[in-house]
Amino acid sequence: MLADGVSCRGVAAHLRRALLIGVLVIAALMYLVPLAAMLFTSLKSMPEITGMAGFESNTILTPPRAPTLAAWGEAWSRACISVECTGLRGYFGTTIPMVTCAVAISVSIGAVNGYVLSKWRFRYDTVIYGLMLFGCFIPFQIVLIPIARVLGLMHLSGTMAGLVFVHVAYGITFTTLFFRNFYVTVPDEIVSAARMDGAGFWSIFLLILVPVSGPIAIVAVIWQFTSIWNDFLFGASFGGANARPLMVALNNLVNTSTGTKAYNVDMAGAMIAALPTMVVYVVAGRYFVRGLMAGAVKG
Amino acid sequence: MATLEFSHVGKSFGSVDVLKDIDFSIGDGEFLVLVGPSGCGKSTLLGIIAGLGSLTTGSVLIDGQPINHLEPKERDIAMVFQSYALYPSMTVADNIAFSLRMQGMPKAARMEKVRDVAELLQISHLLDRKPQALSGGQRQRVAMGRALVRNPKVFLFDEPLSNLDAKLRVDMRTEIKKLHARLGTTIVYVTHDQVEAMTMATRIAVMKDGIVQQFGTPDEIYQRPANTFVATFMGSPSMNLLPGVADDGGVTLADGQRLPIPGRGDVLVGLRPEWFTPLPRGDQPEGAMLATVEVIEPTGPDIYVGLRLGGAEVMTRLPAGTDIRTGELRAFAVNADKAVLFDAETGVAL
To answer: What is the largest CA-CA distance in chain A?
Structure first.
């Protein structure tokens, strides 16, 4: 009786565990299978992809029989984008500074905003915070035409500076929200103590709050980097011919192939374009999780 | 070194008055304790001295000079916060030196001052640590060091001991008192603990509902409470209040026994627990009070004895080893000279 009960419970526990692992494996496959398909395709030659003679039994998930980096080289330096056939290489040089500037500025302004909105009381501060929050929910599409007009008035149309401006304007709502919610968890008494010790507005921010902002700064940087790097709409709308970010270039690369579609080059190009965000996640991923959890549990 | 004066200080949030006509002053080198239950306005008042909160009416003066319009940093006041409020990213040494750094003092000079203060507080071995790696008592010392290093006119303490365990609290209490004796700086100390108030203060302001109920020396507050709130808030166990009717000859209690304290009308007789002495069994001289012993609570040095007397419950404090038994009817001598009469209606001392 007793022994049966124990073994029954043992079996149930094993089943639960098997079920859990099964669900996790399926979830992992949902993410990994498309990635595998991309990777395999990018390493194959065109005949292998299209299933020509000798490759009849191939599917999209068949590993490459003779892996080659030719498509990667093509996407990197020779593929045609619009009328120039120089690959994606050149776009890194213009997109990385644009994204870096936009991330640095939006995160810095967000930090100052968060500091002001959490540690200093002033008239209508909650209203301003509410409007900032509201800004997070404005869809990109409705602001396209107003932004185009504003950029025109600022003489920033079709420039990287213009793109930086747009991404900063849109990004500070999120970064402000991140920093404000983080600084709320820093005790107000610390700010009071610093005021009594003779610290002013900027000293309190730079010497006391910034040094503890690591976790949330990483969250804000990853968030901003990913969304700005991956942005297509603003880049396509406001970049023009002279300030084309990498994502727009990738789109053009895929759409301007003449003759047969070079799937292997397209896949290699997409992976090249996605590499920086992957690197950011791998390097800073654990801080990202830590930052998201910061403040949730009082330590 | 400074005098501190509150001149008709009031503060209100909209229609709610959190402080009403605070008006008293203390001399140079005094140790003022603001004591009262939570929400009485004591921390608000401290914030006003510090310059962290504003006042609605009146003014605060240091050495005769109004300071209302000054920024916190211009007031030459240092404060120890309840949560210690140490700067988490800085070492202990940098925490203590922060105010000097803000003044622009060169590094060598400020490190020398930090070393002096650290020695005084016995935290020299902790100077390179971060606050995170300190115990509660150590953080407390660092917070005090941060205040001490500035050598200010006035020190403010906001419930500094409430986050410490019981033993450490008693030790730190003694140390703060010693420090005050040594430095002679004016101190304003906020607490809700009446024992801290009694042991440390040279002057106590008992507050409730934004009003100073009584301002005086610990002895005055204890012996001559101005009203029933002060009487019951200060002292543990608290002062007994026995209802009775007074005339020129004395007070008649609810059970008919009389105490020889002249007065008039309905009163409450305030008697401290230690003003009762049990008389030998069978002995009942003139003026002794008869009471039934209801409960006996030994605490070590004393025993707390609960009595039923004059129709009310009375708590007394007797020396340990007193021969007394639960349930017995016993005569007690009562120190009627010290008794305080309060108006039964208003609670104000007569």
So the answer is: 84
